[in-house]
Every structure is written in structure tokens, then in C-alpha cells.
């Protein structure tokens, strides 16, 4: 009000990260609730000065629908899923063409790719964000584009873990375990489920969506299908899933384990895999753990390493392999057995021809059978054979 009087005209207020104070405190719900109350008092003061405010814009990561800001400032227009603003905070394909053509072509040369192949890879790594249900337009992460086109390194690399991780999500993960669902195909989600309504009842889907790890893939009559937007985010999400599911597998452990597999050092790979499964927080040894839980750990381990392309439950004519990983050097076909043997797992891979579609790659193909002991949740046996 004083500033408006001094200038003789209404003021413009810009508030970035309006949600940060609450998000930083999600590990302490009473504290987060108290902060929410303080923010409510602040926003009420803004509303009472409405005649002195020409324009107010607030941005943040998380849409806390009951943060009190939305009741204190009930004259706000929520632009979160408004198609008119869906490309406001990212680059479209057309904007890349118009503003970065010289840099894009120079980077394609550095990477030794044709321009079309380069753009396809760029799209795979950094595009995919869709911010409104009634638009098909997807946008690139502008920070990732800047960090990619600046140094023009001879390969694409993830920058998300250094620039995009949500503190609210990290604080959420200190209190909750993410379940082992396929986050690349989350179906039947309502728009209200995407909001963070109650601090005491946070959902993993809403936290991942608000944190940028999930985006809109489709919308049918108000029901959303969500998925991971791109490879950069997929790598970081799997790294988070691995870290919080195992409580001990950091990036160094992941790197050494995956590198051993890529180098075909199977003794080291199996030893590190045994150690990883031995430390999983599965509860009592009497607890029944489904095969999918063992498979999920292996998936996030390999899929969080950017040198592997990983497919879980790869569908074939005679069934589906539990997991297939592919590097530039080789293909690895995994089958897991609970209450079975590693030899039975290998026999199933061969009998059902899980590896046959990969002969066309011309790469060595390694068949890997893993057997788990349900009495103590350990990796009891591991065998590998090369496809003849």
C-alpha cells in the first residue's frame, strides 16, 4: 500500500516458489501446518490491499489446494491446466527451430549424428511435458536445453538430478516408500487426485506429478493417463526409486554394479546383486514377497544407468521375459524364479525364445537366470549363458 501511494499507481507482485516453505517442511507435518497458517495470514493481507495491486502472479512446483492461499486469495485464476498457457514455461519444437537452429546443427555435428537423428534423440531425452489435457503440444525442459547446447558435449547427459529435484518430493520420500507400480503408465487418475490436498495424506502420484516426474500422456473424459516425460527424468526417477527402496544403493554402488554387467564381469555383478538383495527392507523373513518386487529392484537398478535401455516384461509370441537390458555392446535377457532354480530360469528363456528377437541386433546376447529363496528373500543362485 505504501509503495502504491508513493508511486501513485497500483503495484505488480510476483511471487516465485510460493509453496517452498511448506514443501521444505513436509518431513515435519506439524511444522508444515504451522507454516501454512503463517502464509495464510500473509496472503490475507495481500487481498485486503487488492485496490493497490494491479497484477499478482504466483508460481510454484506444488499445487497445495488447501494451503489457505486459495481461500485467502479466492480471486486468483489458476492457470495450471489452462491450454492457453501450456507452452509458457517450456520450448516447443517450433521455438527450438526459430531460436536455436545454429546451436542444434553444431551439436549434431559434434555428436556425429544426422540432423534428423539428433533431433529424435534430443526429443527422447528432454521433451515430453504436456501441461494441459486439451492440448497435444509437448514442450522441452528449457534448463536442460541450455545445459545441453551450451557445452555441446559429444553425448546427451541428464541434468535433472542437479536442477529439477523437488525438495517437497525428497521430504516426502523420507517418510514414505514409493510403491513398485509402473510409473510410465499410471491410468485412471482424476484431476483432483493430482492436487496435494491434505498434508497428512500425501499420495505418491500427486507428489511425482507435481514434482515433474510424471506428466499427462492422455485424458479421456476427465480420467488422466500419466507417464514419465523423457529419458532424463526416467533415469533420475529410477535412481530415486532404487535409493529409497534399498536404503543403501547410492549412485556409486549402482555405477559399479552396472559397469560389471556391461563388462561381462558376471562374478562381480552377481556378488553385488546378492549384497543388494540381502539389504532390502522386506520385513520379516516369514513375509511373502511377490516376484514383481524382486523384479522391480533389478529394473530400477539397471534403468537408472544411462548406458542401458531396459524393458520389463518384454512381450514375445510365447510369453514375456521378466527383463531385457541392452547396451551398445550386448543384450541381457533376465528371468527370475521364486522357489525355482536358475537353471529352470535359463531353460524358460531358451524354450520360449525370449532372446530370439534380439539376434537382429548383431550383439552378443547373455541369458541370465536368477533364483531367489523366499525364506530369507536372498538371491540364492545366478547363472549366465551366451546365446549360441
Cα Rg: 24 Å
Largest sheet composition? 5 strands, mixed
**Gap between N and C termini, in Å?**
80 Å
Low-confidence spans: pLDDT under 50, at least 5 residues? 283-287
Portion of residues within helices: 25-40%
Structural class: alpha+beta
Organism: Candidatus Spyradenecus faecavium
Protein name: AAA family ATPase
Pfam families: AAA-ATPase_like, PDDEXK_9
Domain AAA-ATPase-like: 3-70
Summary tags:
single chain, 388 residues, alpha+beta, three-stranded antiparallel β-sheet, 18% strand, globular
Describe what you observe in this structure.
This protein has four domains: 2-78, no CATH class; 93-157, no CATH class; 163-231, no CATH class; 247-386, Trna Endonuclease, Chain: A, domain 1, CATH 3.40.1350. It is 40% helix and 18% strand. The strands form three sheets. A five-stranded mixed beta sheet has the order 6-7-8-9-10, with helices on both faces. It has helices at residues 2-7, 20-23, 29-48, 69-72, 93-111, 115-126, 142-149, 160-163, 167-173, 204-210, 231-246, 251-262, 266-278, 291-303, 342-351; strands spanning 11-15, 53-58, 186-190, 215-220, 223-227, 309-316, 319-326, 331-338, 365-373, 378-386. It is of the alpha+beta class and 388 residues long. Residues 283-287 have low confidence and may be disordered.
